[in-house]
Amino acid sequence: MNKVILMGRLTRDPDVRYSNGQGGDQLCIARYTLAVDRRFQRNGGDDQQNADFISCVAFGRSGEFAEKYLHQGTKVVVSGRIQTGSYTNKEGQKVYTTEVVVEDQEFAESKRAADESQGGYQPQSAPATSDASAEGFMNIPDGTKDDLPFKK
């Protein structure tokens, strides 16, 4: 089984290109790098933190989503599969690649939390009860419904 789940922040805006797909359709290809925290302990027992930088590629509708909604600093959860490959560069050297082919991607924090933390980690607090209806749902302000990535 080849399955990977990552949570991290984009190191820069996605690099988006379009290529001709089957049947002459345009296929969106979005590439981005996730900085994923890695915790480890030194001999003294203190937790140290480092990051791995994981290359990701999203095709089709996932690529279009990345182009429209993801940008540098966005915290996302990505699931997909690891893919390896190789090519020969201009100098004639063989270069090996490893990347995550994105099957699903979701925001890992609210836009408000992202704006407040300015891309850094901040624990989230629960929304104020005045913002939520009796069913536990927040009202969406008028004029923003057209900007949502999910529509009926």
Describe what you observe in this structure.
This protein has 152 residues and is mostly beta strands. The protein has two helices and six strands. The chain is flat, with a radius of gyration of 19 Å. About 9% of the residues have low confidence.
Condensed summary:
By secondary structure, the chain is mainly beta. It contains 2 helices and 6 strands. It has helices at 60-69, 111-117; strands at 4-10, 15-20, 26-41, 47-59, 75-88, 94-107.
Which band does the percent of strand residues land in? Answer: over 45%
Estimate the helix proportion, in percent.
Answer: 10-25%
Strand order of the largest sheet: 1-3-4-6-5
Give the overall average pLDDT.
82
- How would you spell out the order of helices and strands? EEEEHEEH
Structural class: mainly beta
The backbone outline, from C-alpha atoms, is flat
Largest sheet: 5 strands, mixed, barrel
Radius of gyration: 19 Å
**Number of extended strands:** 6
> Would you identify the regions where 5 or more consecutive residues have pLDDT less than 50?
121-133
Give the termini distance in whole angstroms.
34 Å
Instruction: Output the number of helix runs.
Output: 2
